[in-house]
Amino acid sequence: MNHNLPVLTLTFPLLAAFAVNLLGKISKKHVAPWTLASLALSAAASLLVLAEVLKNGTFTYTVGGWRAPYGIELVLDPLSALMLVLVSWVALIATCSALPSIKKEMPGREHLFFSLYLILISGMMGLVITGDAFNLYVLLEITSITTYGLIAMGKGRAPLSSFNYIIMGTVGACFYLLGVGYLYLVTGTLNMADIASALPSFHESPTIATAFCFLMVGLWIKMAFFPLHGWLPNAYSHAPAGASVLIAPLMTKVTVYLMIRVIFSIFSPQYAFLAHPRIQTLIVWAAVVAIVAASLIALSQRDLVKMLTYVVIAEVGYMVGGVWLGNEKGLTGAVFHIVNDALMTLCFFLVASAILYRLGSARFENLHQLFRKMPLTLAVLVVGALSVVGVPPTCGFFSKWYLLLGGIEAGHYGFVAALIFSSLVNAVLFFRVLEIAFSVNHDETDGEELPVRADAPAAMIPSLLIVALALLAIGFQAGPFISQVIRLAVPAL
Amino acid sequence: MDGWLADLVSKYNYWIYVVLMMIGFYAMIRKNNLVKKLIGMNIFQTAIILFYISMGAKRGGGIPIVDKAAGLAGAIRASDIVNPLPHVLMLTAIVVSVSVTGVALAVMLKIYKGYGSIDEDQILERIKKS
Question: Using a CB-CB distance cutoff of 8 angstroms, which residues of chain A are in contact with residue B48?
Answer without folding.
Answer: 174, 177-178, 181
